[in-house]
Write a structure and sequence with these properties.
This is Polysaccharide biosynthesis/export family protein. This protein has 369 residues and is α+β, with helices and mostly antiparallel strands. The chain folds into three domains: 120 residues, Roll (Outer membrane lipoprotein wza fold like), CATH 3.10.560.10; 76 residues, wza like fold (2-Layer Sandwich); 74 residues, Outer membrane lipoprotein wza domain like (Outer membrane lipoprotein wza fold like, Roll). Helix content is 31%, strand content 22%. It has ten helices and 16 strands. A hairpin with a 5-residue loop joins strand 12 and strand 13.
Length: 369
């Protein structure tokens, strides 16, 4: 009986070791592991092979998400004065009307603020409704009303400070503040340039322009490539958000030389580029047919997460991988080859050999005693 007990113990430990190694890391995914059971709701993964046809479908879907042409067709109307503007009204040959406090009053103090009700006060003629008028229209009105008191007045109206029409730039900008619009049309590039981008944190492919309740996602690189350098003109009240780069990462794990999380500023990062950043596949251990892109679902109850497989041993597959674009949050996993899985099996089994040895030694000592 004493001889049988150590053998039973050793067999039990070996079985436990084998069962734990059955799930050893490095094994490639099988389609049977990813079977979808939509009726029961248990299916949470779906495997798709990366092929040229799939890449073409993905690129077609990306093209449909392009910016609408109407966004580029917008042309701003001539600048109109509004509340918050500071105007400088000049009446030639009448300095007492141009600068009533005398030549010592300089700068914006000599200007006239358009009040919240859209009016400004001017000597002799009193309140003038300025809001909604262009500087030229306002000049004509002041000239006509001054003509009762000044013979043939020559009037000029200019804007000292623009305060009524603004756009906002927030997010990964060096100066997150309202930007005043002037008489010259302001482009998206102008606003971003004035706000300044934080080059270490800004995501240049996900800039969000909000206009009248609609938000457009703009990739600056795509904007230059697809629209031939056309300028996107801004509208009063537009809001621009520059997202931070830290939310845009892809993860490369498994049999690669340098696994880790990688951020990218552009929106066109291919699977091959991600593998390149990870310094390529480990030649001794990687399974070329076990390159996967794991893309999570936002609602697993409604649709499964998708696992894309690239059979990287094929040159055609590598060509498809160069055109397969990744999304933020994607996980690139490279499985291990069969020999590597066996080596890991052995390495995980080795710690149990000490337990088996100790169990056998204990049994021998019990028998001898």
């Amino acid at each position: 009986m004493n001889n049988i007990t150590p053998r039973l113990l050793a067999a039990a430990l070996a079985a436990a070791a084998l069962s734990s190694c059955a799930l050893a890391p490095g094994q490639h995914l099988r389609r049977s592991d990813l079977a979808i059971d939509r009726q029961s709701g248990n299916g949470q993964l779906e495997i798709v092979t990366i092929t040229p046809k799939l890449v073409a479908q993905e690129n077609a879907a990306r093209a449909q998400n392009s910016l609408p042409a109407a966004l580029f067709d917008y042309q701003p109307a001539p600048y109109t004065v509004g509340a918050g503007d500071i105007l400088y009204v000049t009446v030639w040959d009448h300095p007492e009307l141009t600068v009533p406090a005398g030549p010592q009053q300089q700068g914006t103090l000599a200007g006239r603020l358009v009040q919240s009700d859209g009016t400004l006060f001017y000597p002799y003629i009193g309140k003038v409704m300025a809001s909604g008028k262009t500087p030229m229209e306002l000049r004509e009105e002041i000239s006509n009303r001054l003509a009762k008191y000044v013979e043939s007045p020559q009037v000029d109206v200019s804007v000292l400070n623009y305060g009524s029409q603004r756009v906002w730039v927030t997010g990964a900008a060096q100066r997150s503040s309202p930007i005043a619009m002037g008489t010259s049309p302001m482009t998206l590039a102008d606003a971003i340039s004035q706000a300044g981008l934080d080059n270490m944190q800004a995501d240049l492919s996900g800039i969000q322009l909000s206009r009248e309740g609609t938000t457009y996602t703009i990739n600056l690189e795509t904007l230059a490539r697809e629209f031939g350098g056309r300028q996107l003109l801004l509208k009063d009240g537009d809001s621009i958000f520059v997202p931070y780069l830290d939310r845009k990462e892809i993860f490369v794990v498994g049999e690669v030389n340098q696994p880790g999380a990688y951020s990218f500023r552009t929106g066109d990062v291919s699977l091959n580029q991600a593998l390149g950043r990870a310094r390529g596949l480990l030649q001794q251990t990687a399974n070329g047919n076990a390159v996967y892109v794991i893309r999570g679902s936002t609602d697993l109850q409604q649709e499964p997460s998708i696992v894309y497989q690239l059979e990287a041993r094929s040159p055609t597959a590598f060509a498809a991988g160069s055109q397969f674009h990744l999304r933020p949050g994607d996980v690139v996993f490279v499985g291990a080859a069969g020999v590597s899985r066996w080596n890991r099996f052995v390495n995980q089994l080795l710690p149990f050999t000490n337990i088996l040895y100790n169990a056998a030694r204990t049994g021998t000592e019990i028998r001898d005693n």
